[in-house]
Amino acid sequence: MLRVMAVDLHVHTCLSPCATLDMTPVKIVRKALETKLAMIAVTDHNSAENVAAVMRAARDTDLRVLPGMEVTTSEEAHILALFEEVADALSLQELVYEQLQPGENDEDLFGLQVVANEFDEVEGMNQRLLLGATTLSVEQLVEAIHTQGGLAIAAHIDRDAFSLVGQLGFIPPDLALDAIEISKRLTLPDARARFPEYQNRTFISSSDAHDIGDLAQAPTLIRAAEPAFAELRMALAGLEGRKVLEDSRANHREGRGTAVDG
Length: 262
What we know:
It is a single chain. The chain is built from 9 helices and 12 strands. It is α/β, with parallel strands linked by helices. Strands 1, 2, 3, 4, 7, 8, 9, 10, 11 and 12 form a 10-stranded mixed β-sheet that branches. Strands 5-6 form a two-stranded antiparallel ribbon. It is globular. α1 (25-34) crosses α2. The protein has a single domain (2-261), classed as Metal-dependent hydrolases (TIM Barrel), CATH 3.20.20.140.
């Protein structure tokens, strides 16, 4: 039996220097449950160090948390990397750290980069320049994500800054993306109208939440059997009845996002 569920695949924690300190594991899980999300992905800038804490915070709940990252390529475009297992995200993190722009975070300029545990306790500070770019080209990054069994999604292509379209002017037609994301400023039907050249791509929308109030502001509704990575992969590919529902964001906002669908 397939059902419709809301997912938010672009969520930052207090590890991202541009996020507020309210973006802690416990608060993120609580807000996701309050807003009836079935699945979220933790996607901090160039790091996955808070992923496991959010997953542990959600352990005894109905919320599924996917490990991920938002990686900045050498072109200064943001790509979301989503995985099934923490180990895969940490393997990509190892590569990203090797290729990350050198330097330390300026906390006064960019903000704190807090590593937290599942109880919202501070474990430490990440001193890397997480807002910097890596030396990985977009092609190299997408290949690395797929090598680790992950999903590669072009982030917020409707934004001028830090998107493939904003940085390159287009999405390379042979780039093996699993989906392209638009921000909460557009609906998915509006995105289809604005970007007709990408009609053959799968579109999703996400909150890109940096503050707790932003979480679930632009969820993607998918039809799937359960909130699971394998089901998400099939939904993005439109396989076996799983799919992204592009015209029903309002249904979730009105509390109708969990209806059973045969």
